[in-house]
Design a protein that fits this description.
By secondary structure, this protein is α/β, with parallel strands linked by helices. The protein is 35% helix and 17% strand. The protein is built from eleven helices and 14 strands. The strands form two sheets. An eleven-stranded mixed sheet has the order 6-5-4-7-8-9-10-11-12-13-14, with helices on both faces. The longest helix has 33 residues. 22% of the residues are buried.
């Protein structure tokens, strides 16, 4: 009898007793996952091997930047050397002519004076022109107070000049120059006029400090005389600064020139006294040449024998140039007067007489010499005037003169008289 084989369906195949085992495995995996989440440090992580280079990353970056920097510097050096070689050898950077030199700010400085300094740079490469040296050379020109020299590519030079400002004429030797507030002497310009007095007492050999001190006195005198809108300095032809303790000014007016002694201070007050009494003194004295105002409430009229100190006569060319520049004629004429010479008889008296002459001839010769001396020496009297409290002067009786000289009038003050003083 044939035996039947049991058949197993598909459902029964998947519902095997192994199912609980699978469930247990799934639970174990979940437990492992939970364990890893709760304590990840319970078991060691597996390290991944990384291939490393021979140098650290930061060091390698630094070396890369250093190499790039060296390369840039090297290339820049090559470029600069090429440009330098080109600028040194190229004709484009040469100063071809004086047209390539531009000059600004000159009024009294001529272009020829500037080109005497800059002329040697024509034909030279512009980058080899010594700018500082040229600046110092330009400032040696008397009219130049400061200068600046600049170069502009490709081949142009620019010079800017700042000139000095003159404030007075100065008598130096046999010519007249201009001077600024610091005492720097400058040549007279060709086509320009000024209205300044002439300063006497300067010389070219004195140090700049001495000349600067004189100019401080001059500035003080002018500032005082022009204060309050008076402008008395316009009446002055000369200012004598040879003696700082006795400043003398030559006042020029329609009646002639008068030498006024102003001392060393209070210039305006003393000059106002001269202006107030000038007409009165001209009527009182036959000739008014000088007035000494250095003493308080006392004025000495005509105290000078020769006036200001004698100067070297101006040459005709210097006098003509000075007048063209605006120098007042009184400042020129007053110094062209010849110095007095001793009489011939007085000069011969110094020669020893010959032994062959008789005593009578010697006596006659002495008599002639005495008469010649008496005629040669002319009496010069100092006339003293005292200012009364009210500012008026009244004539006083004549007072006997000293040494046989002529008496001179004196103005009394509080019942007293001043004697004449011989020079």
């Amino acid at each position: 009898m044939a035996r039947k084989t049991p058949t197993i369906s598909q459902e029964e195949l998947y519902l095997q007793p192994d199912e609980p085992v699978r469930e247990e495995l799934d639970d174990a995996r979940l437990l492992d996952l939970d364990a890893e989440e709760e304590s990840p440090f319970l078991r060691g992580q597996k390290r991944v091997s990384v291939r490393r280079g021979s140098l650290p990353k930061k060091t390698a970056a630094r070396l890369t930047w250093a190499v790039l920097g060296i390369a840039v510097v090297f290339l820049s050096g090559i470029a600069v050397a090429s440009l330098y070689h080109y600028g040194e050898r190229s004709w484009r950077f040469r100063v071809e002519s004086s047209d390539d030199i531009e000059i600004d700010g000159t009024q009294n400085v001529s272009r020829a004076q500037v080109m005497e300094v800059m002329g040697g740079d024509i034909g030279r490469n512009i980058f080899f022109v010594p700018l500082d040296q040229r600046k110092k050379q330009l400032e040696q020109i008397s009219w130049v107070e400061s200068a600046s020299v600049m170069r502009f590519a490709p081949n142009r030079l620019r010079i800017e000049i700042h000139e000095r400002t003159p404030i007075a004429f100065a008598r130096v030797g046999s010519k007249i120059l201009l001077t600024d507030s610091a005492g720097t002497l400058m040549e007279l310009p060709a086509k320009k006029k000024y209205s300044f007095p002439v300063i006497i007492g300067m010389n070219a050999g004195e140090p700049p400090s001495t000349r600067s001190a004189r100019m401080k006195i001059y500035n003080d005198v002018v500032s005082q005389l022009d204060s309050g809108g008076a402008h008395y300095s316009q009446d002055l032809s000369e200012v004598d600064l040879s003696d700082p303790d006795d400043v003398k000014v030559l006042a020029n007016n329609r009646d002639g020139e008068v030498l006024v002694h102003l001392g060393s201070s209070n210039y305006l007050e003393r000059y106002k006294i001269y202006v107030a009494h000038m007409q009165e003194w001209r009527q009182q004295f036959s000739k008014l040449e000088s007035v000494d105002l250095r003493y308080d409430r006392q004025i000495i009229v005509n105290p000078d024998l020769q006036g200001t100190a004698k100067q070297v006569p101006l040459t005709p060319w210097a006098a003509k140039k000075a007048m063209a520049a605006g120098v007042k004629p009184a400042a020129l004429i007053s110094h062209l007067r010849p110095a007095p010479h001793p009489p011939v008889a007085a000069t011969q008296a110094k020669t020893p007489a010959k032994a062959t002459k008789s005593k009578a001839s010697k006596q006659r010769r002495k008599h002639v010499i005495r008469k010649a001396k008496a005629k040669a020496v002319s009496p010069v009297v100092h006339k003293t005037v005292l200012i009364a409290p009210a500012g008026k002067t009244t004539p006083a009786p004549a007072v006997p003169a000293i040494g046989g000289k002529k008496p001179s009038p004196a103005i009394p003050k509080a019942g007293t008289f001043m004697k004449d003083q011989g020079h």
